[in-house]
Amino acid sequence: MAGFNIKRSDEILKRFLQEKAKKEGYKDLKKAVEELFIIPEFTFEDWEEEKVDWSEIKSRELTYLKLKPLLLDKKLNLKAIQEKLKPSGLVGGHRSIRSQVENFFERESEAKEFIRQLIGDGSQIPDARKIDSFVDKAIKLAFKDKNGKPERHNAILFVSVLLTAVFPEHFVDYRRGRWEAFAEDFELEQFPKTDSPGKALYWAGRVAKQFASLPTFQSYFKTDNPTWWVAGLVYELYKDKDKDKEKMKKDISEIKAKLPRQTEEGYSNTGLSNMLNAIETKPFIILSGISGTGKTQIARIISAGMVKEDSPTESGENKSREGK
Fold this sequence. Notes:
The chain folds into 2 domains: about 5-255, no CATH class; about 270-320, no CATH class. About 65% of the residues lie in helices and about 0% in strands. It contains 17 helices and no strands. The chain is globular, with a radius of gyration of 23 Å.
């Protein structure tokens, strides 16, 4: 998980939620998160009939739970799938993409063939090439503007929704600009600069899992479907892509300015200095923490700063040992 420091990302999230709660007049952070982002439990029918307020998080959970069995059904009832997608807003609120999705489903035989090739029986996760192939075929079939120009981003969003319903551990509904801004703000793995839709979707899935692994997220967003909730949070925070992106960048920048300064490797100078001082007092220190918190990296940074120039280092004996 390149470029991901779980401790720092978690601190950014915690302070962001605290600031959000404070601005909205909440004293209880748990209550603030529940009311601002999650909204109490309700059924798909309640939401479908507009009896409850819209929730980016709950709408995803309810829709995906309904979509998965339909997509895995051998009969593949396209009308039923389309009906479940309509109220969700997952494939966009703009008329153009809704029309393209409708056009896709109207080409019933091709649509069924493409979906089956992509998802199969749900036992095998499609690789990036298979996803890329689906996007190309979907564009030719239905995802074009009124002038016949391909609208690739709409096809990518559509396939991401299908994949997320069946393989939630690996995919999320995807709009590149929102996920890029989210990863940058919370210092998660950065976009890999690829033209492959499949690789981009796998990246977004990794980012969602990174965020879902943060202790603060796990404390306040308790769910059996964490990546769906992360996706909902992304769309809630960056709903108005340009306006919200700038606001989030400003708010998060202010939070980061208050955090301890980091070294190039991602650890605060103060923290490393304290560890070095501890070693000078006693010939050992004990590093503890869950997987992914950087214990090995910290040990490497400290040892690199203590060895003499003619001693074996990562670029010498130790590195060659790792390569054996």
